[in-house]
């Protein structure tokens, strides 16, 4: 079974600074997808960034980028120029290539301080 | 685009009664919908996967007779919690996958439904 581990229950960062959230996963698959989702206080899940395992290039979406280390099964999220609106729970998720479901990590609560 | 709605957003019911939660894809046809449960300050736990026109596939440990899922159309899936008890109180979230996102595995999430059983 696939497992997703987020070892940082809570993190904080000063506004405008950079923060990195860690995620590791366990799988025997070679093709799969990884995601970072954001859940603000409204509890609406929002896709932040997506990485396809067969792509070596790290995904980037504006201030959000990932460091995907396939051999180490690591998928960290870097948030640059942190903004107050980035305050939320962040979930790392894994989906197998030929399977419907998505497995989530326990989440990291990020607080951006003014 | 890719908006998923849920109704109701919050429901309170008495122990022993049943409650139905609707999940709709507003601007796309969802071949596959998912139901998750989220306890306070915890992660999302997949309960079941439903494909339009077929029976739902439940995760291990989820009682299919208690959590009835119907995916009768490409835009609507319902979750019925039957004979609800206080321990069923939770936040229920649905998500949908459009055919165009099948390869990317992206899911579009609804805003969630808070169920409180008294």
Query: Could you tell me which chain pair has the largest interface and how many residues each side has?
Result: A-B, 22 and 20 residues
Provide a count of the helices of chain B: 0
Radius of gyration of chain B: 13 Å
Q: State the share of residues found in helices of chain B, binned by percent.
A: under 10%
Question: What fraction, in percent, of the residue positions of chain A are helical?
Answer: under 10%
Question: Secondary-structure map with pairings?
Answer:
The complex is a heterodimer of chains A (114) and B (118).
Chain A: E1 3-5, E2 10-14, E3 19-21, E4 24-26, E5 32-39, E6 46-52, E7 60-61, E8 64-69, E9 74-79, E10 88-96, E11 103-104, E12 108-113
Parallel strand pairs in A: 2-12
Antiparallel strand pairs in A: 1-4, 3-9, 5-6, 5-10, 7-8, 8-9, 10-11, 10-12
Chain B: E1 4-7, E2 10-13, E3 19-25, E4 32-38, E5 44-51, E6 57-58, E7 67-73, E8 76-81, E9 90-97, E10 108-109, E11 113-117
Parallel strand pairs in B: 2-11
Antiparallel strand pairs in B: 1-3, 3-8, 4-5, 4-9, 5-6, 7-8, 9-10, 9-11
Structural features, described:
The complex is a heterodimer of chains A (114) and B (118). Chain A is mainly β. Helices cover 0% and strands 53% of the residues of chain A. In chain A, the strands form three sheets. In chain A, strands 2, 5, 6, 10, 11 and 12 form a six-stranded mixed β-sheet that branches. In chain A, strands 3-9-8-7 form a four-stranded antiparallel β-sheet, with no helix packed on it. Chain A is globular. Chain A starts with a strand and ends with a strand. By secondary structure, chain B is mostly beta strands. In chain B, strand 7 (67-73) and strand 8 (76-81) form a beta hairpin. Chain B is globular, with a radius of gyration of 13 Å. The N and C termini of chain B lie far apart (37 Å).
Short recap of the structure:
The complex is a heterodimer of chains A (114) and B (118). With 114 residues, chain A is mainly β.
